[in-house]
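This part of the workshop introduces the protein records we will be handling. An example says more than a description, so a record of this kind follows:
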Amino acid sequence: YDSIAFQPVTYYPTPRPTSQISQQTLDSLLTYTNTKLKAAAGQRKPLVASPGPRSLIFRGAITGVNTSREGLQFYEVVPVALVVAGVQATTGHRTMDTQIFFEGELIDAATNKPVIKVVRQGEGKDVNNANAPVTVDTLRKVVDDLATDTTLFDASKK
């Protein structure tokens, strides 16, 4: 293959903004993801507007942006701390994990068959509680890691 036709990353399904993840954050995250992954793909092969016979077509989607309650820490297993942790969880004051779910594929332009498929889940920064907003900065490292992995991936090693 001598080039990549980069199709912009999309959301699938289209997410709905919440009180914790705004539409502005979703839009900014998508823009940031496209910028980083397009640059990473361009480091591997020249990018082309339309695929030729020796091109790969990149398609990718963010399939989820999620927050979930952080699991109990070892020091919270003692009975009094367990009660406090339970109260924090029910009142929304418990630290929340953030995640991005991503799926991507490279398709042979000549045969229209997938060459590589990838499914990734990455952990972003924790947010203080269920009311704390998730920002692009909260999830930036996940996208950066995905771009780095794209740049460093060696298809010749199995």
Remarks:
- The radius of gyration is 19 Å.
